[in-house]
Specification:
Layout (H helix, E strand, L loop, with lengths): L3 E5 L4 H17 L2 E8 L15 H17 L4 E7 L2 H12 L3 E5 L7 H4 L3 H8 L4 E4 L1
Helix pairs in contact: 3-5
């Protein structure tokens, strides 16, 4: 049913919690797992840089996640892309032929004011395949 699962990750607690669901789905369906992390372009006037704007931090995050899945007997491919997270996630899902995107919900978008700013909300609206959100 889910031949290819895309798991976009960042350093959030929600992404770490979603990893258990990813493990269960991938093992149950024998899916190909692709881990994705997006390096965001930081504005030049940003006061404190977000760690996700550092290619080194993102590479290390992907390697650690790949190792964790490997311990569960799951081979995971890793992709690092640069751009706006929601659009990049959906583009990659389309490019790899993902059957499912599994991602954590950071809590943004749970209120009306935050709904339009949530990466999760944008992915849900733009995705070429089903999206499983882990609260």
């Amino acid at each position: 049913m889910f031949k290819t699962v895309l798991f976009p990750i960042d350093q959030s607690r929600e992404a770490r919690e979603a990893a258990d669901v990813v493990t269960n789905v991938v093992q149950k369906y024998g899916s190909r797992l692709v881990l994705l992390s997006v390096v965001e372009e930081a504005p030049a006037d940003a006061p404190s840089p977000d760690p996700m704007v550092s290619s080194e931090v993102v590479s290390k995050l992907l390697e650690n996640a790949q190792a964790l899945f490997s311990q569960q007997g799951i081979t995971a491919e890793i992709l690092e892309r640069q751009g706006k997270p929601a659009f990049t996630i959906c583009d990659v899902a389309d490019d790899i032929g993902a059957d499912l995107i599994i991602m954590g919900c950071r809590g943004l978008g749970l209120t009306e004011e935050g709904a339009s700013d949530s990466v999760t909300s944008r992915v849900i609206n733009l995705s070429p395949c089903p999206v499983l959100i882990v609260p």
